[in-house]
Amino acid sequence: MRGEGPDLATLLRSWRARLRPEDVGLPFGADSRRTPGLRREEVGWLAGISPDYVQRLEQGRAHPSADILRALARALQVSKAEFELACRVAGHAAEFDGMVPQLIGPSVQRMLSRLADVPVAVFDAAWTLLEHNDLWVALHGETRSRPGRSTNLVWRAFHDDPGRVRHPTMPDHKASLVADLRDVASRYPRDRQLAGMIGELRRTSTEFARLWEGSAVAHHGSERKTIDHPQVGPIELDCDVLSVHGADLRIIVFTAAPGSEAADQIRQLTTLDIPETASSGTAA
What is the pTM of this model? Predict the structure, then answer.
């Protein structure tokens, strides 16, 4: 039986109450907190929605779209079972059936907060940015606030938007992304957003269309890359792509050999001022 607004409201309030700012890497201070858990403005900041809308959701006066529900689930670090419950209550269960997973579990969130000395970001299987740590922002100068598909690495690669990353061989990089995306599309044939992005790329990029019509299926993996940083200068780093089994997420980590010039440059990044709004962006 489908639940109504107040049921979802109760879930959202309870999930907000169990989190602390330090659990999600928020820059907000913990002084003078009157109630346990996150504040509504903190949830809104994490999910990319207004505090007023969070309040209306918690009061049962608004019904979230599927995209907002997914953003709230990530912000509140809910489990897969909790997310499925929220989908059923909100009437969105069918919309998420067969879609590329974007839920980041608590263990991955903890990893992001604890690996503070290396740039780390989490992407979904189709290479859309979901989350990152502060050092990722310092290295790439990007945030999650980029609109729509512009946080997707494949979209950016074929729209001449590689960010600060200099790839060893750009044609090979693009070919590996397309081959990998073809495999993802075969696993999630019912994902309308993924199909829409692929269709748009085929219409707007002759290079993508040519590669898409090929037969290669591969996985985009690790390689050495150069980041052209405007303050620190070129930084040569190892870029490794890790997989989260069961969640179908990609974790991109940039590292440098101990004692190397690049390691010193990474340490310099920690002294840079990072805008508060970018605390939790991108091209790899």
Answer: 0.76
